[in-house]
Each structure stands twice: as C-alpha cells, then as structure tokens.
C-alpha cells in the first residue's frame, strides 16, 4: 500500500515538474529585464504598449462575437439533434471534429479563394467583412469544443420531456430555448464560451493570413523581436487561459441540479 | 352520451409499417375521470400523446369541447399534462414552475402570484414556493407538476403514469389527492396507468387497452365483474380459469372436473361437447360448502400463504388450480397442504370467457 502511494506521488511529482519547471523558468526569465534584480519591467512594457492594448482589445471583441455566433449556431443545432434527429448525431459529431483535422491554414486559404473581392460574397473587400470572416473562422475552430460542451450539458437534462412540458404549457420554440433549455445548459455554454475565448485570444494563423490586428500575430511579432517581453506575454496569455478554466470550474458549481436526480 | 366533451373517433397511429393504435374510439363527458389501462406497448400512452398533440394521428379525429384539435400544435390546445418523470424545470423555483404557463400566456404578475398561491394551497405545499425541484421529494415534485398543469385552467388534464416513479405509500396517498383535486375542480381527466388497482380505485370509467385497441370501456365495477373479453378478464384482477365441457347446451350444464355446474343463460352459442374457459374471482369462492352457494368442486390443497389478515389458499382441482382468499381467524388454524377440500361458489359468479 505504502509502496503504491510512493510511486503514485513520484509519477505526480514528475508530471508536475514537467509542467511547472518551464513555466517557472519563463516567469523567472520574464522578470530579469532589469540587470541584477527581479522586476516586472517586461510586464510594464508589454501592458503599456499601445499595440498590446489595441490587439488584445480587438481579439477580446472578436472572441465575444465568436462566442455569440457559436452559441447561436450550436445550441439550437445540438438541441434539435437531441430532440428530433438523434440518428444524425454521429454525422454531426464527425463534422464538428473536422476543424481539429483540417489545419487552420487550409481553411483560411479556402476563405481567401472563396470570398475574395471578385467573388459573389466579397467578405475580403472591406476590413469589416474580413473581420466578420475571421469571426466565422474562429467559430469554426471553436466548434469541436463548443458543440461538445453544449451536447454534454444537454445530456444532463431530459430534453424531450422538458420541451414537451413547456409546449403543453403554451410555450413556443423561442420561449422553450431561451427559458427552459438555455438556462439549464448555461454552465455548459459558458464552458464552451471560455474555451472559445482561450482559442481566439491565442490564434495566429487565421488572423495573420487575413491580416487582422489580433493578439496572436502581435505575440508572434514581439516574440521575434524582443527578449523579455515575449516571456511576459506568454505568462499573461497563460494567466488569461487559466483564468477562463477557473471560471468554468467555479460556474459549474452553480449548474441547476436535475429535478430527476435530487441530491 | 349526448354531447361528449372529448371525442376520439377512429384514431389510428402507425410508425412506419407498425400500427400501434388501431381504430380507437372514446367519448368522455365533461368532468369525467377516465383511465387508460393496459400492459406496456398497448398504445395507451400513444393515444394520450395524440390528445396532447405530441403525436399526430395517422387517421381519425380528436374533438375537445366541440373543437377539432387533431392537427393543432400542443401549445395551441389548452391541455394540461403531468409526466411520469415530473418534468419540472430544474432552473426555476416551485412558484416559477407553477406560474410558467401563466407567464407564457401573458397574465399580469399580480394575477400569476395569486394563482400560484392558490395552487400551492390546493396541493397543500404553501411553504414550498421558493424551493427548487431538486430540494423536493418525488411525491412533492409530482404535486408541483400537477399544480403547474392545472394552473392555466386547461380544458383537459392528461396524466401519463404520474405515480409510477413513486414508492407504494406515496402512490396511494397521491392518487387519492389527484382524484380529490380533479373532483373539486371538475376538470375532465385522462389517466394512463398499467396499475389496475390505481385505475379501479380512482376512475369514473376505464378503457382497457390491448394491441392498440380499446378492448372494453366501462365503469370499474363493469370492467371487474363483467369483463367483455378474455384479455380484460385476465388483465384486471386475479382470475381463476377452469376448463369445462358443455354437457347439455339447452339446459346450460357444464362439466368441470367430473362435476356438473349449471350456467343457464350464459352459454349463448355453445354446443354440447364444446370446451369452454370458465373464470371465477378468488373472492367469489369459499372454502367448504357455504349456504347460498349452488355449486361446488372437490380437490386438494396445494399451497397455503399466510398474508396476515388474509390467507391465500390454492386448491388443485383435476388439472386446474384455483386460488381463493379467506380471512384470518385467530381461533382457526389455516388449512394444511395436502388436505382434501371442497370449494363452493355461486354459478352466477362464474364468467364464461369468449
């Protein structure tokens, strides 16, 4: 028993070391900007950089729109598949996995060919159009995470009976989705939203090839030209991602408990 | 029935090549409590779901209060429904659950609050308004579901096996409560169950269903005492089935295990020599010869089960076994297995199954 515990702790320690040592090294390096002493100078430089603020603000806004688009597409689709078309589930699951298999660069080149200024849908002819296309692209990249999060949430409730109970009480589809289904999968939707946020904040390929002033290309640019700031940026980006994950954990505690499975 | 409130006429429902409901007909009076009773897969829930609008009939019509609702959507029917799985909205409090239908209908807030309070009073849970469904027991959840269903004052109340998920004691008290609320409000109700005791105890009428059809529609008394078909006789209550041979069709005599039983007037269509299935309820049989019982059969006691107030005795008669119940008497010990016994009954209690 004791020997088993020892090996378990050893494996845990090795895993933790593999994970934390590079992180600690990055933190340590990011604080060595001032010679001979530790400081937050690199963070001050990064946070005070107008381009950081602009690109981060741009990516946050893009993330918000991506989340809205993702929710509008995924929630009704996942709901309808659970309710009326369960036979389509394997196909839809396969489709939602495609963005993990098809590289972003392929998707973005497809966009450039399909939506150029000479195409019937000239998204790329204007900055707003290109940003819209970027948001659509982000929604595609986030699809596997958003779909799975929402589908898992739907699995915890009796979708069909709740829908029928609402219908028989006079509710239409809009009311059913907004007042019955969405509130009961809200935590799952938020999980998907935070994952989407984390993906969008760090995404480089699409933003770079569509020439948008997003945070990902800024990260790459700083990384190529500075010494300490990229480490600080990496830690900031890491903190944002971890912040999102922590929020998912905290919010999941507030998920409505199923009436059918009382504690 | 002069002017039925609910009229289900020639309703059929097929899923692909499978027909689950076939030519179902039923008229229900205003304020009546009708149960659909039958085994799993007999089509009772499908009929209920067609009345609710969740399934569209392949043929036939459903009329409520003179209005054809066959093709209306569920949210256009003004029908209340209680589901087996409660189906309370987990994100809403008890009060919000009960007020859901009223809010959807656009009722003013003050009126909703008043109606919710009234409903909580009716189901005797006034202190539960701010609780969430997961904080309630199964019985409490189902009472809330009932309150939610009747809060918008529906024309029709549909109960889809609402007691199946509850334990036995709660089931009995809740079914009495449902019946009492239904009578108080005078709401026309369809109750789906596979539990015969439930159906017999609270219904005005019962539709016994089998194979997608209504085998018999009648009062609990008629269903139990005058079953129209072999299925109804077997499904409702405990039944002893004996094989008999018609010895004299004109005189109405039948031989059961070498003894003659007179069934005058019950052998319509049978000829001498025909084999018949004869049925007797356990409570129609007495152990030993009893005054007023005109028929008797002899056999041997094969099983004795002491059930407290009642003793269930099984008597082997030729190739048949007959169950009967006798009341426990502290002064008299129960009969012993292997004893010779005579059972007696009134031939008028004997049913001929066709």
How would the blueprint of this fold be written?
The complex is a heterodimer of chains A (263) and B (354).
Chain A: H1 2-30, H2 41-48, H3 50-83, H4 89-101, H5 104-114, H6 127-155, H7 159-168, H8 173-184, H9 186-202, H10 205-209, H11 215-225, H12 229-252
Helix pairs in contact in A: 1-12, 2-12, 3-6, 3-9, 4-6, 6-9, 7-8, 9-12, 11-12
Chain B: E1 6-15, E2 18-28, E3 33-37, H1 44-52, E4 59-64, E5 67-68, E6 79-82, H2 94-104, H3 109-122, H4 138-150, E7 156-160, H5 168-185, E8 188-193, H6 196-202, E9 205-210, E10 213-218, H7 220-225, H8 230-235, E11 240-248, E12 253-256, E13 259-262, E14 275-280, E15 285-287, E16 295-306, E17 310-317, E18 320-327, E19 340-345, E20 351-353
Parallel strand pairs in B: 3-8, 3-9, 6-7, 7-8
Antiparallel strand pairs in B: 1-2, 1-4, 4-5, 9-10, 11-12, 11-14, 12-13, 14-20, 15-19, 16-17, 16-19, 17-18
Helix pairs in contact in B: 2-3, 2-4, 3-4
What report would you give on this structure?
The complex is a heterodimer of chains A (263) and B (354). Chain A is an all-alpha fold. Chain A has one domain: MetI-like fold (Orthogonal Bundle), CATH 1.10.3720. Chain A has helices spanning 2-30, 41-48, 50-83, 89-101, 104-114, 127-155, 159-168, 173-184, 186-202, 205-209, 215-225, 229-252. In chain A, helix 3 (50-83) crosses helix 6, helix 4 (89-101) packs across helix 6 (127-155) and helix 7 (159-168) crosses helix 8 (173-184). Residues 258-263 of chain A have low confidence and may be disordered. With 354 residues, chain B is an alpha+beta fold. Chain B has 2 domains: 6-235, 3-Layer(aba) Sandwich (Rossmann fold), CATH 3.40.50; 240-353, OB fold (Dihydrolipoamide Acetyltransferase, E2P). Chain B is 24% helix and 35% strand. Chain B contains 8 helices and 20 strands. Chain B has helices at residues 44-52, 94-104, 109-122, 138-150, 168-185, 196-202, 220-225, 230-235; strands spanning 6-15, 18-28, 33-37, 59-64, 67-68, 79-82, 156-160, 188-193, 205-210, 213-218, 240-248, 253-256, 259-262, 275-280, 285-287, 295-306, 310-317, 320-327, 340-345, 351-353. In chain B, the strands form 4 sheets. Chain B has a 6-stranded mixed sheet, with helices on both faces. In chain B, strands 13-12-11-14-20 form a 5-stranded antiparallel sheet, with no helix packed on it. In chain B, strand 7, helix 5 (168-185) and strand 8 (188-193) form a beta-alpha-beta unit. In chain B, helix 2 runs parallel beside helix 4. The longest helix of chain B is centred in the middle third of the chain and has 18 residues, at 168-185. The relative contact order of chain B is 0.11. The mean pLDDT of chain B is 89.
């Amino acid at each position: 028993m004791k020997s088993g515990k020892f090996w378990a702790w050893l494996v845990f320690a090795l895993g933790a070391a593999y994970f934390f040592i590079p992180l600690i090294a990055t933190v340590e390096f990011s604080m060595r900007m001032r010679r001979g002493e530790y400081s937050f100078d690199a963070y001050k430089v990064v946070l005070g950089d107008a381009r950081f603020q602009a690109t981060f603000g741009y990516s946050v806004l893009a993330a918000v729109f991506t989340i809205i688009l993702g929710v509008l597409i995924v929630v009704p689709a996942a709901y309808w598949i659970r309710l009326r078309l369960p036979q389509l589930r394997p196909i839809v699951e396969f489709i939602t996995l495609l963005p993990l298999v098809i590289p972003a660069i392929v998707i973005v080149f497809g966009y450039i060919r399909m939506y150029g200024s000479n195409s019937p849908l000239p998204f790329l002819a204007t900055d707003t159009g290109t940003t819209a296309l970027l948001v659509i692209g982000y929604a595609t990249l986030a699809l596997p995470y958003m779909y799975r999060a929402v589908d898992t949430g739907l699995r915890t409730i009796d979708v069909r009976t709740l829908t029928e109970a609402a219908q028989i009480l006079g509710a239409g589809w809009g009311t059913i989705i907004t007042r019955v289904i969405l509130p009961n999968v809200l935590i799952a939707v938020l999980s998907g939203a935070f994952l989407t946020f984390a993906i969008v904040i760090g995404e480089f390929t699409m933003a770079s090839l569509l020439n948008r002033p997003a945070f990902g290309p800024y990260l790459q640019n700083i990384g190529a030209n500075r010494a300490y700031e990229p480490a600080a940026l990496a830690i900031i980006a890491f903190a944002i991602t971890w912040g999102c994950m922590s929020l998912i954990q905290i919010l999941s505690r507030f998920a409505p408990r199923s009436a059918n499975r009382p504690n | 029935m002069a002017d039925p409130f609910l009229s289900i006429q020639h309703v059929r429902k097929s899923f692909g090549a499978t027909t689950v409901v076939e030519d179902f007909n039923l008229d229900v009076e205003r304020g009546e409590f009708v149960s659909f009773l039958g085994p799993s897969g007999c089509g009772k829930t499908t009929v209920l779901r067609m009345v609710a609008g969740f399934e569209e009939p392949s043929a036939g019509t459903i009329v409520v209060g003179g209005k054809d609702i066959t093709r209306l959507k569920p949210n256009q029917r003004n029908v209340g429904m209680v589901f087996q799985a409660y189906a309370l909205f987990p994100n809403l409090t008890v009060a919000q659950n009960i007020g859901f239908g009223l809010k959807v209908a656009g009722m003013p807030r003050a009126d909703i609050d008043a109606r919710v309070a009234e409903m909580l009073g009716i189901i005797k849970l006034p202190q539960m308004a701010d609780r969430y469904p997961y904080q309630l027991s199964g019985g409490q959840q189902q009472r809330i579901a009932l309150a939610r269903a009747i809060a918008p004052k529906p024309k029709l109340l549909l109960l889809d096996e609402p007691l199946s998920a509850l334990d036995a004691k709660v089931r009995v008290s809740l079914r009495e409560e449902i019946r009492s609320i239904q009578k108080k409000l005078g709401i026309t109700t369809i109750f789906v169950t596979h539990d015969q005791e439930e159906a017999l105890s609270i219904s005005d009428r019962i539709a016994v269903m089998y194979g997608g059809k209504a085998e018999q529609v009648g009062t609990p008394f008629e269903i139990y005492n005058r079953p129209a078909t072999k299925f109804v006789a077997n499904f409702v209550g405990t039944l002893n089935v004996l094989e008999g041979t018609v010895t004299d069709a004109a005189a109405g005599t039948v031989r059961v295990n070498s003894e003659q039983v007179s069934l005058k007037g019950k052998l319509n269509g049978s000829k001498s020599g025909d084999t018949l299935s004869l049925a007797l309820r356990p409570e129609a049989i007495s152990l030993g010869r009893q005054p007023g019982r005109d028929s008797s059969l002899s056999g041997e006691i094969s099983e004795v089960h002491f059930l407290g107030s009642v003793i269930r005795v099984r008597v082997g008669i030729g190739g048949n076994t007959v169950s009967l119940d006798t009341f426990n008497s502290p002064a008299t010990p129960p009969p012993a297995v292997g004893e010779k016994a005579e059972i007696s009954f009134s031939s008028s209690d004997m049913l001929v199954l066709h």
